[in-house]
Amino acid sequence: MATTFLRTSDLAQELDVHVNTIRIYEASGFLSNVPRGTNGYRQYRAIHLEQARLAHLALHWPYVGNKQHLIDLVKSAANDDLGMAMEFAYEYLADVRAERTHAEAAIAFLERWAAGYALDASSHPMHIRQAAAHLNVSIDMLRNWERNGLLTVPREPANQYRLYGSAELGRLRVIRMLVKSGFSLAAILRMLQQADSGNSRNLRDALNIPSEEDTHDYVVVAADRWLASLLKLEQRAQEMIELIGRMIEMLHTQ
């Protein structure tokens, strides 16, 4: 029985991408060797389609961590080292889940602050250099957060130097933890504006659901809905694991 080969356009149509994307996958080493017929046309097999599907699933933004790890995963599959690809996929799943844990912890920290609990016990106001050292951040970061509207810092009447008291330092701790956990400044500002208006309920949703005005004013990126994005990334990692499992089964049945 003659083998039925697939064309570049067949792979592109299946993945809903341009044919040049498939050619880039091949040139990048994301597909195993593709033989050519006597007419010079590429002769893709079913395994090439699954390899292209894995590359498409793994490498489109957003992703967590170092993209090179995902590239190594895809290339391992292309080199028929599916055991290594599966190992990389589970490591990536662990990375995504760790990011989710950090994001959830940051939100719990936020909710404690919103409930009125003090987050800093500093007994005297600090100037910006002292505050930066106290929080282990740079002066530029403090200025940037203020410039982006995340907080207003009172000033000394005599010289207009910034004075950070316990309230400002506590708020900055929330901002710093959310930033470190991957939330965008736009999402944090949206949440803080809601909290400052007296509505401290559902601040988690404020971090993850842009307002109607936001969606009309700019393109909402993944970091503006980071927790929701992490849930999707975990699902994507699970899909990668299932796909590699199918590829292993395909090779075993050949």
From TrEMBL:
CDD domains named in the record: HTH_MerR-like
GO MF terms held by the record: DNA binding; DNA-binding transcription factor activity
Protein name: MerR family transcriptional regulator
Gene3D superfamilies in the cross-refs: 1.10.1660.10
Keyword DNA-binding: yes
UniProt entry keywords in alphabetical sequence: DNA-binding, Transcription, Transcription regulation
Signal sequence segment: none
Cited InterPro entries: DNA-bd_dom_put_sf (IPR009061), MerR-type_HTH_dom (IPR000551), MerR_fam (IPR047057)
SMART domains hit by this protein: HTH_MERR (SM00422)
Domain of life per record: Bacteria
HTH merR-type domain: residues covered: 128-194
SUPFAM superfamilies xrefs: Putative DNA-binding domain
